[in-house]
Design brief:
With 736 residues, the protein is of the alpha/beta class. The protein has 20 helices and 27 strands. Strands 9-6-5-4-3-2-1-10 form an eight-stranded parallel beta sheet. Strand 14, helix 18 and strand 15 form a beta-alpha-beta unit. Helix 11 crosses helix 12. The structure holds 1-deoxynojirimycin. The site of 1-deoxynojirimycin has 7 residues, from loops.
Length: 736
């Protein structure tokens, strides 16, 4: 349709029909065979049968047949044949589940995430979906927050690259094209800043930090053309995001130039009443509309109030029109007026879902995301040596995560299955060792599961079996981690340690065999002090998805060489949180080994995280030469080039992510100690050396200045090139 046709359509619509477009409900309101809208118990939401029948979009339901049926029924009675939109959280894969976003961040390979997003879009599109609620572009600094698993990490630059890549992967050049879906950048804004890492808590941050650290990734997703943005649950500057006019109109629309659909998070407009900001539903409706929120997800705030408010003259109909026009444009952008079913196709579901190509991609992504945190030469496992694979992640399919809502546990390859296909049965031993968690452990997530009670007797048996295996083998691989329902939405934890039952297993095994490699699973950085002190090797595998088992065995066996780099610092312990490499400089920085008492430090622990951002080892070794600049003065018109020689000094081929950091030495506002400004992944054969060059130009040095501008300031900078954010391999230059 042309813009003119959309406007004509808008003008033909009744007020009620327009407000219907602004309501989103879940697919649970439809009967299993999609024949009818259910208005039974769920009616308590305050919605009428009419509201449900004509809601402009639904969320959380997939399946080509089912969605086609719902669309067909809907169009039979929708007065202007305006098709319904189908949305769902396709966060890191549909049925083929890719590694969690935090792991994808650790691949330092946004192009790979773009491929994963495109594959997820294809599986979603044939299943009848039009929109995914991804990417989550929230910056994260607190591993207590369960949703760090859904972010690509603590760095604004890295997050921006991934947000852009994922939007491009989902949408392609045009979301109307076959097998593409529309992307929704979320949660605007600063949801990741929840105080004390407790989900849905207040976010407290300065406007400067908002601009410098939190907004860049949302901006990148928007500039990549994301069709939607979702509001966040938290307050920003004291006002809930969903009713925050300044945040949504001045920043999102005016400053970031977003002109797509703004959808609330689940019931977030309604919750502004609980926040103590809106007086009642009518007030919430008025405030959210005033802020420019177009769709009310899962509440009756808009549908029960907007018509009346317009009729009473309390709300201008023009505001409703503005929102509805954006929704119609989105439907048009997806080509739904011409083909309301888009790619929904049961044959396509059979062909593409979990196809060999997608599984191979998932295996590659899981392999590239894993981070080798420690290795005293134990990995890769020596060929022909005997090995005991022990731990609750040996047979767990939970490694797809709880947020892979369309994924099936049964499609996931376990570590044991993968190992059995490659390891010699004569010298490989397998044992669970202990339950994943003890009874009574709190879970949250989108799968019904409670920790089952394992009797003391059974636990004793499990331990004995594990110790027998550990004694017989030369090497033990312990497959440990958080339960997959211990991270994700509403899954904050104050203690970021491994479940105690697993630590007990670790300590017992350590008594009989100290050749321990730990493969770790989970959705967040954990406190790994004891593990990293005692184990000879530690491999962070995250929640690696459907092909996780194969990827882990590829890495343990040396078929693949780890190349991941941490996208988020691993704190020394929880008392250090939040700890991130790009903190602002203080006036009294601690100088390790210094004598001065009054410095910014802890008396009992180091300032440094256990493993910093950007860190990750390989089975080979790399050296990076001192940095050489082609000039030491940079001007607005003349960029400079920094180069290093990177050499593989080990014995196997490997990939290194060479990282560029810059520190602005003095400025009108205090600047971070270091900021990631670029990286290059280089594959080198043993003995091979290559020159890596980075171009540094003036726009890379811009920041939000004291006078609210966005520009660079002349002066001195330190430039670092190295293998992680702790690198000291540096030189200086001036910006003239
Ligand atoms: C709430 C979550 O915060 C959001 O990320 C998600 O997209 C919606 N629920 C819809 O499932």
């Amino acid at each position: 349709m042309t813009e003119k046709q959309l406007l004509d359509l808008l003008h033909e619509m009744t007020l009620k029909e327009k407000v219907d477009q602004m309501l989103q409900i879940t697919g649970s309101f439809y009967q299993k065979d999609a024949n009818e809208v259910l208005t039974g118990p769920e009616n308590k939401l305050g919605l009428t049968a009419e509201d449900l029948r004509y809601a402009g979009s639904i969320l959380g339901t997939a399946g080509a047949e089912r969605l086609k049926k719902i669309q067909e029924r809907y169009l039979e009675t929708q007065p202007h044949k305006i098709p319904m939109l189908f949305m769902m959280d396709i966060i890191h894969g549909m049925k083929t589940v890719f590694p969690i976003p935090l792991a994808q961040g650790a691949s330092f390979n946004p192009a790979l995430s773009k491929e994963c997003a495109a594959a997820a879009a294809k599986e979603a599109a044939v299943s009848g979906l039009h929109v995914t609620f991804a990417p989550m572009a929230d910056l994260v600094r607190d591993p207590r927050w369960g949703r760090v698993m859904e972010s690509t990490g603590e760095d604004p630059y890295l997050n921006s690259l991934f947000a852009r890549a994922m939007v491009e992967g989902f949408q392609g050049d045009d979301p109307k094209e076959p097998y593409r879906i529309a992307a929704c950048v979320k949660h605007f804004a600063a949801y990741g800043a929840a105080e004390a890492g407790r989900d849905y808590n207040t976010a407290e941050l300065s406007e400067h930090t908002l601009w410098e650290s939190y907004l860049p990734a949302y901006r990148a997703g928007i500039e990549a053309g994301a069709a939607l943005v979702m509001t966040s649950f938290n307050t920003v500057n004291g006002i809930p995001a969903s009713t925050n006019r300044w945040l949504m109109r001045d920043i999102l629309r005016d400053e970031l130039g977003f002109d797509g659909v703004l959808i609330s998070d689940f019931s977030a407009i309604y919750e502004t009443i609980t926040h103590g900001h809106a007086k009642d539903k009518a007030d919430a409706a008025q405030k959210a509309l005033d802020a420019g929120v177009d769709i009310d997800m899962m509440s009756d705030v808009y549908s029960s109030n907007l018509c009346r408010l317009v009729e009473e003259g309390a709300v201008e109909e023009a505001l409703v029109d503005e929102a509805v026009l954006r929704i119609l444009r989105l439907k048009n952008r997806l080509g739904l007026f011409e083909n309301p079913y888009k790619d929904a196709d049961p044959e396509g579901e059979k062909r593409y879902i979990l196809c060999a190509e997608h599984r191979a991609l998932a295996r590659r992504a899981a392999t590239e995301s894993a981070v080798l945190l420690k290795n005293d030469g134990l990995l890769p496992l020596a060929p022909k040596s005997s090995v005991a694979l022990i731990g609750p992640y040996l047979r767990s399919r939970g490694m797809i995560s709880s947020w892979a809502i369309a994924g099936e546990l049964s499609d996931c390859v376990t570590v044991e299955e993968a190992a059995k296909s490659v390891f010699d049965p004569r010298n490989t031993y397998y044992a669970d060792g202990c339950p994943m968690v003890s009874e009574g452990t709190a879970f949250a997530g989108f799968r019904e599961e409670t920790p089952c009670a394992v009797s003391e007797e059974k636990q004793g048996e499990m331990l004995r079996e594990a110790l027998d295996a550990a004694k017989q083998a030369e090497t033990v691989v312990l497959l440990l981690g958080e339960h997959y329902l211990q991270s994700g939405e509403a899954a904050s934890r104050a203690m970021i340690e491994l479940p105690e039952v697993q630590m007990e297993l670790f300590r017992e095994v350590y008594k009989v065999n100290q050749n321990i490699a730990v493969a770790l699973f989970g959705g967040r950085p954990l406190d790994l002090r004891e593990i990293s002190r005692k184990a000879k090797a530690v491999l962070e595998a995250w929640l690696p998805g459907t092909e996780g088992g194969n990827a882990v065995i590829d890495l343990l066996s040396g078929k693949a060489n780890p190349s991941g780099k941490l996208s988020m610092s691993f704190p020394y312990c929880v008392g250090q949180v939040p700890v991130h490499y790009n903190m602002d400089s203080t006036g009294r920085p601690w100088i390790p080994g210094g004598q001065d008492r009054c410095r910014s430090r802890y008396l009992d622990i180091p300032n440094e995280p256990l493993y910093p951002f950007g860190y990750g080892l390989s089975y080979t070794e790399f050296t990076v030469s001192p940095v050489v600049l082609d000039r030491d003065v940079l001007t607005k018109d003349t960029p400079l080039t920094a180069s290093v020689l990177v050499k593989n000094t080990g014995t196997v081929p490997g990939v290194e992510a060479v990282q560029l950091y810059i520190r602005d030495e003095y400025a009108s506002v205090v600047r971070p100690i270091k900021e990631l400004k670029g990286f290059q992944k280089v594959r080198l054969a043993p003995g091979e050396e290559r020159e890596i060059r980075f171009t540094i130009d003036e726009p890379m040095l811009r920041f939000h200045t004291a006078d609210n501008g966005f520009s660079s300031e002349t002066g001195r900078f330190t430039l670092y090139v190295g293998q992680d954010s702790a690198t000291e391999n540096s030189t200086c230059f001036e910006l003239a």
